[in-house]
Amino acid sequence: MDLQLAGRTALVTGSHRGTGRAIAETLAREGARVVVHGFADAETRPVVDDIVDAGGDACGVAGDIMSDEGAKAVFHAAVKAVGPIDILINNYGTADAGSWTKSETADWIDAYEKNVLSAVRLTRLAMAAMKERRWGRIVMLGTIGSTEPAARMPHYYASKGALATMTISLAKELAGTGITVNIVSPGLIRTKEVEDRFLAQGREKGWGATWDEIEPHVLKNFIDNLTGKVTKTQEVADLVAFVASPRAGALMALNLRIDGGTTALVV
User: Fold this and answer.
1) Is 156 a catalytic residue?
2) 3: in domain
3) Are residues 121 and 193 in the same domain?
4) Of 9, 37, 47, 187, which is the most buried if we count CB atoms within 10 A?
């Protein structure tokens, strides 16, 4: 399927690694001009080089989006490099460890800065020009924990819950403008960090030494889904690319869970 992304410009926050990198690479393969964002030039350069070497169109911008000034600098650098931003993927966020007894006020504020306000800043910067052009895509990266939060990491799940609520509010604000707003919410994703963590644990527990050996134990002991597989970063990236494409014009104000059926809910 041609996602009709040729000629579109996309800014993907936190795309120097992990799922964000997979999203940037996928958008570039589909023909978009992609701005790779990281917090230092050295972080974005390898991703940009790989995209360009594969025949894609990409550039990098570096900056801290946890402040108004930093977000403005990142956004204006992106526009200077590729022109008006058609697609904004608010991918950046962190899942920092914590609990109700150990996470202090500063930890909660930090979670909101990273997972909510970073997206608010860039969204506000991007949406005015999108409205003028009567076309745009804004995609948030959430988590299924906003639907079924755990007791652990309450500051993280609360912030991602706010991101989901914010998505619906923004969709209503931008109704009829030609801009769509949606949130893609993965469950456990098979990032390098997740794979390394479970490989180490698998060796300790005698589950095996390869991912194929360990994955059934991960599903049995840590998550319960209907596919029998941990979601890959590329699967998340493929969904995000579709939601960000002209073909997804009928998708609006949706929380799209991609978790192998972990949250098998009637909503």
Assistant:
1) yes
2) no
3) no
4) 37
